[in-house]
Structure formats: structure tokens, C-alpha cells
Write a structure and sequence with these properties.
Elements (H helix, E strand, L loop, with lengths): L1 H5 L4 H28 L7 E7 L5 E7 L8 H14 L11 E6 L4 H8 L13 E6 L18 E7 L4 E5 L1
Parallel strand pairs: 1-4
Antiparallel strand pairs: 1-2, 3-4, 5-6
């Protein structure tokens, strides 16, 4: 800054240089603040998923991040059942077994993903909270015809002269 006083410079150039200098100093300061806070302290090697029991008690399930493509939703469901049983939070009603896991905010796409037993766990984010989805043996298929009672109607998609089309789960 002192050199500007020693060299003869046009006043408009001097003002422009000073304003650019101040902007650059602010940007450098802002950059150092953001980079210092964004540096990870530790590299996470495990992903944590929470299973919420009926009493709003959460059980933690951990799995290695590098195994998320190999582990399936069926594995997560069985692991959740084991963790709930270890903590005496499992509902052992044989008429209503746990058949899958679902999100607590009823995300339809993620709930569908979790209901497919062979799908990987790669779509689950760190800290996702899931809850058990209980089946009903009254709807168990044993040479029966499937009816509308087997589905939860979510939304009416369209209606025609002879039928209605629903999005169901």
C-alpha cells in the first residue's frame, strides 16, 4: 500500500486498485474460513442407520461403507430384527411379523426400494431413520386371488368410463 503513495498514479486508478485490493482480501479471508471448516476431521468408514421401535426408541445399525453395494435390504431387515430383539423392543406377534423396513416420512420410492429384498443399501444416507413394516398373515397368499384389500391406495391416477387407476402400495 505504501508504494502507491511513492509512485505518481492517477487518482481514479488508485481508487480502483484499492477497491480491488479490499475485495481480494475479503475473498482470501472468506476462502480460509470455509476451507478450514470443511476439512473432514475423520474419514467415515461405516454408515449408521437408525431403526425406530414402537416406543420411539431408536436402535443403531452400522455397516461398512465399502460393503454397501454388497449388503441387501433383506440383510438390513434381518439385522434390524436382531437389534430390536437384543434390546427387547421386538413385537413377537406371529400374526404380524416384520416383513420389511420403511422410512418414517413415508418416502414412496425409498419404501419401495426397501421392500425389494435383493436391492443394495447404497441409496441410504447417513443417519436415515427407518421403522419396521409389519405384515398381516390374513393377507398371506395360499392359492387365493389377490383383491384390492391387499393394497393401500395412495393416489387416484386416472378415471375412465369403465375403471379407475390407482397408485398403490
Amino acid at each position: 500500500m505504501e508504494f502507491l503513495n511513492q509512485v505518481e498514479v492517477l487518482p481514479s486508478l488508485k481508487r480502483e486498485f484499492l477497491s480491488l485490493y479490499k475485495v481480494n482480501i475479503k475473498l482470501i479471508h472468506l476462502f480460509t474460513l470455509t476451507t478450514e471448516t470443511n476439512i473432514p476431521k475423520t474419514i467415515k468408514t461405516h454408515r449408521t442407520i437408525f431403526i425406530e421401535a414402537e416406543d420411539n426408541v431408536k436402535v443403531q445399525v452400522d455397516f461398512p461403507i465399502e460393503e454397501q453395494d454388497n449388503l441387501t435390504c433383506e440383510w438390513l431387515t434381518s439385522e434390524a430384527i436382531n437389534k430390536l430383539a437384543q434390546n427387547n423392543l421386538l413385537n413377537l406377534d406371529p400374526k404380524h411379523p416384520i416383513i420389511a423396513l420403511q422410512t418414517i416420512d413415508n418416502s414412496i420410492t425409498l419404501d419401495y426400494w426397501l421392500s425389494c429384498s435383493g436391492r443394495s443399501l447404497s441409496v441410504l444416507k447417513e443417519g436415515t431413520v427407518l421403522k419396521p413394516f409389519y405384515g398381516d398373515n390374513a393377507y398371506k397368499l395360499e392359492n387365493q386371488k389377490i383383491s384390492l384389500d391387499y393394497f393401500h391406495n395412495i393416489k387416484l391416477i386416472g378415471a375412465g368410463g369403465f375403471s379407475k387407476v390407482y397408485l398403490g402400495n
